[in-house]
Design a protein that fits this description.
By secondary structure, this protein is α/β, with parallel strands linked by helices. The strands form 3 sheets. A 7-stranded parallel sheet has the order 7-6-5-8-9-10-11. A 5-stranded parallel sheet has the order 13-12-14-15-16, with helices on both faces. α19 links the parallel β14 and β15. About 1% of the residues have low confidence.
C-alpha cells in the first residue's frame, strides 16, 4: 500500500497529506485526496462481524492466562465464589469516556489492512498525545518513560488511596442504614420479584397509590402484587439515600406490594474481609500485569491489552474495585435473607449489580432468574454479546453469571442475539413495557408539515458531532424549517453547542414532540431513533466517525444514515420526499400484553 514507505495512521483534525496514502483514524474520508487512503470507520462497518468476533475472542481468552498453577479468573475468585474478572470493565464491555471498544476495533482493523508483518512499519500522527502514545504502545510496543512513571504512581499510590476513600464514603453514607434493611419481607409467600432502579416518585406520598416503574410498565399489575427490590441508582449519596428510605417507607404503609431498598450496610467483619480480598487483588494484579500486556490472540501481533489497562487497573486495584467488592458482599448478604421466589425479573444491561445479583441468587438458590432487556439491543453494544465459548446457555461450565431466560422487546433484538450464538429457546419476545405509549401514537397520522426534531444523546462527544453537522447543514438551506430540540436529561445540550438553536429547546416530553414531528434527526447511539422509526416517522441517523455505528438499524432500510453536513442538508432540503413506514419488528406493542401474561401466568408459580 505504501511502496515501502512508513504507513501513516492519521488521527489529526487537519486534512491528511495528499501525496501519500493514510489510514484515517476518525474520518469517513471526504477530505482525503489520495485514492489509496482508507477510512477506518468505514472499514470497520464493512468488516464488522470479523472485527467484533476478534475483539470478543481477545476479551474472552485473556482471563485464561496462567501463572503456571491457576488462571487469572481463578486467581481473582472472591470469598463469595465469584471471580472479580466478571466485574471488571474489560469483561463488562461498557461504554465510557475512554472509548476503549472503538479504539480496539480501529487497531484490529489496522492489522487486518496491513498484515502482521506491516504493524511495526507505521507512523502515528495525532493531535492527542495520549492517543498517539496508546496507538504506539499497541502497534509498536513503544513505552515512554512518562507512561512508566505514571503507571507506577497510580498502581502504588493513587489507586490504593482512591480505593480507601471509596470504602470510607460508603461506610459514612450508609451508617444509618439498617443492617438487615429487608428483614420485613421474610414471611412473604413465594411469588414474583422485580428489580428496578429507584429514583423517587411523588405518588409514594399517597398511601393508596400503586407504585409504577418507568421500566416495568404494566407487568407488575399482571403479576398480582409482586415484591419490589429497588437498586439505588447512583453512587451512594447521604441526602438522596435518606429521601429514598422515606419514600419506600411510605410505600410500605399502603396495602399494595412490599418494597425493599436493595442496599446493604457493612459490618466490621465485612470490612475486614473486603480489605483482605482487595489486598489479594493487588497481589494478583502485580503477578499478572506483564502477562496481560504481552498477551496476544492467535494470528495477531497487537498488544491490545494496553487499550484496556487503565480501566482494568481501576476495576482491580482502584476505587471501582472497592465499590464492586462492597457490592458483592452486600448483595450476597441481602440475597441470603431473601425469601425464595418462583421467578426474579431484573433489568438486563450487563451492569455490575446484575452479575452480583445473578451469581448470589443462583448460589443461594433463591429462584429462577429472568433478564429483561428493557431497551434496544444494538450490534456494537458489546454488553449484550460475548464470545460463543463464553455463553453459559451453550457452555454450562462457564462461571460467568447468566439468567435462566432472556426477554427482549422486539424481533430485531432477538435476531441479533440469535446471530451471536444464543440458542432459540433461551430468548423470548415480550411486549415493550417502556415503549407502550408508542401504540397510541401509531394511530396519529404522520405530519408532512411538522417540525424537524433534533434529539440529543447521552454521550457528550456524540452530541458535539450531531450539533456541528446539523448546524452546518442548515447553512446550505434557502429557508429553514420549523425546528425543535430535545436534550437528553443525562447530558443537556448547551448554548455554546447550539448557538441560535438554543431557543428551540422544547420543554415538552418525547411523546408530544414525536406526535408533531415530520422528521427526527439524532445520533447512531440514541435509542430514540428506534422510537421514531417504529412510528414510521422518517428518521435520520448522524454517524460519528470517532465512535462506532451503535444504531440498531445498521445495514437496514429503517432509517436514513448520513456521515456529513452535505448529506444531511440534502435530506432536510427535500423533507417532502422522505418516506418511512411503521415497523412491527422494532418493538412488540400489544396493549393486551398476551406475551407478558403468559410469562406471569399463575402456572409459573408452581
Amino acid at each position: 500500500m505504501t511502496n515501502g514507505n512508513p504507513l501513516i495512521v492519521w488521527a489529526r483534525d487537519a486534512a491528511p497529506p495528499v501525496d501519500t496514502p493514510v489510514l484515517l483514524w476518525s474520518s469517513f474520508g471526504f477530505e482525503s485526496q489520495h485514492p489509496d487512503s482508507i477510512s477506518l470507520p468505514k472499514y470497520i462497518e464493512q468488516h464488522a462481524h470479523e472485527i467484533r468476533s476478534q475483539l470478543l475472542s481477545f476479551l474472552s481468552e485473556a482471563k485464561f492466562i496462567s501463572d503456571g498453577s491457576r488462571t487469572l479468573e481463578e486467581a481473582l475468585r472472591t470469598p463469595e465464589e465469584l471471580s472479580s474478572w466478571w466485574l471488571s470493565f474489560p469483561s463488562l464491555k461498557q461504554w465510557g469516556k475512554r472509548q476503549s471498544i472503538p479504539i480496539a476495533c480501529r487497531l484490529i482493523a489496522i492489522e487486518q489492512i496491513i498484515g502482521e508483518d506491516g504493524i511495526h512499519d507505521t507512523r502515528v500522527e495525532s493531535d492527542n498525545e495520549h492517543l498517539r502514545e496508546l496507538i504506539e504502545r499497541v502497534l509498536l510496543e513503544r513505552f515512554t518513560m512518562r507512561y512508566r512513571v505514571r503507571r507506577a504512581l497510580f498502581r502504588g499510590l493513587i489507586h490504593p488511596l482512591r480505593a480507601l476513600g471509596s470504602l470510607g464514603r460508603y461506610l459514612n453514607h450508609t451508617r444509618r442504614l439498617p443492617i438487615q434493611a429487608q428483614a420485613q419481607v421474610g414471611d412473604i409467600r413465594e411469588g414474583y420479584a422485580f428489580f428496578d432502579y429507584f429514583a423517587g416518585h411523588e405518588h409514594a406520598r399517597s398511601e393508596n397509590a400503586y407504585y409504577t416503574s418507568p421500566y416495568w410498565g404494566e407487568a407488575p399489575r399482571i403479576a398480582n402484587s409482586p415484591h419490589w427490590f429497588h437498586i439505588y441508582p447512583k453512587n451512594v449519596d447521604r441526602i438522596g439515600l435518606r429521601k429514598a428510605q422515606e419514600e419506600i417507607s411510605q410505600l410500605n404503609h399502603g396495602t399494595g406490594p412490599t418494597h425493599t431498598l436493595f442496599l446493604g450496610k457493612l459490618q466490621a467483619s465485612d470490612v475486614l474481609a473486603i480489605c483482605r480480598t482487595y489486598i489479594t487483588q493487588q497481589r494478583v494484579h502485580r503477578q499478572f500485569r506483564s502477562k496481560l500486556l504481552s498477551f496476544r490472540t492467535s494470528g495477531s501481533r497487537l498488544a491490545l491489552w494496553n487499550v484496556f489497562e487503565d480501566e482494568w487497573d481501576d476495576s482491580i486495584i482502584g476505587s471501582t474495585a472497592l465499590r464492586h467488592l462492597v457490592l458483592l458482599t452486600t448483595t450476597d448478604s441481602l440475597v441470603s435473607s431473601m425469601p425464595r421466589f418462583s421467578t426474579i425479573f431484573y433489568l438486563m444491561e450487563n451492569q455490575p449489580w446484575e452479575l452480583a445479583l445473578v451469581h448470589c441468587v443462583r448460589r443461594r438458590k433463591k429462584g429462577r432468574l429472568v433478564g429483561v432487556a428493557h431497551s434496544t439491543i444494538r450490534f456494537w453494544d458489546l454488553r449484550y454479546f460475548s464470545d460463543k465459548a463464553e455463553n453459559a446457555f451453550t457452555s454450562p461450565q462457564i462461571s460467568r453469571p447468566f439468567p435462566d431466560q432472556i426477554l427482549v422487546n422486539g424481533e430485531i433484538g432477538r435476531r441479533l442475539l440469535l446471530e451471536s450464538g444464543y440458542p432459540n429457546e433461551s430468548i423470548s419476545v415480550v411486549e415493550a413495557l417502556r415503549y407502550m405509549y408508542l401504540h397510541d401514537l401509531r394511530r396519529v397520522p404522520h405530519k408532512q408539515n411538522g417540525h424537524v426534531l433534533l434529539l440529543g444523546d447521552f454521550l457528550e462527544h456524540a452530541n458535539e458531532t450531531l450539533v456541528t453537522i446539523f448546524r452546518t447543514s442548515l447553512q446550505r438551506l434557502t429557508s429553514l424549517p420549523q425546528i425543535k430540540v430535545r436534550s437528553h436529561p443525562i447530558c443537556p445540550l448547551t448554548k455554546h453547542q447550539l448557538g441560535d438553536l438554543f431557543s428551540r429547546i422544547s420543554p415538552d416530553g418525547l411523546s408530544e414532540l414525536l406526535r408533531d414531528a415530520s422528521v427526527v434527526v439524532t445520533t447512531a447511539a440514541s435509542s430514540s431513533a428506534a422510537e421514531s422509526a417504529a412510528l414510521g416517522i422518517p428518521t435520520i441517523v448522524v454517524l460519528d466517525a470517532r465512535s462506532l455505528n451503535y444504531s440498531p438499524f445498521r445495514q437496514t432500510n429503517n432509517v436514513y444514515v448520513v456521515e456529513n453536513a452535505e448529506q444531511l442538508g440534502e435530506l432536510i432540503e427535500h423533507l417532502e420526499c422522505l418516506e418511512s413506514q411503521p415497523s412491527e419488528e422494532i418493538f412488540c406493542l400489544d396493549p393486551n400484553y398476551p406475551r407478558w401474561r403468559k410469562e406471569l401466568a399463575p402456572s409459573r408459580l408452581t
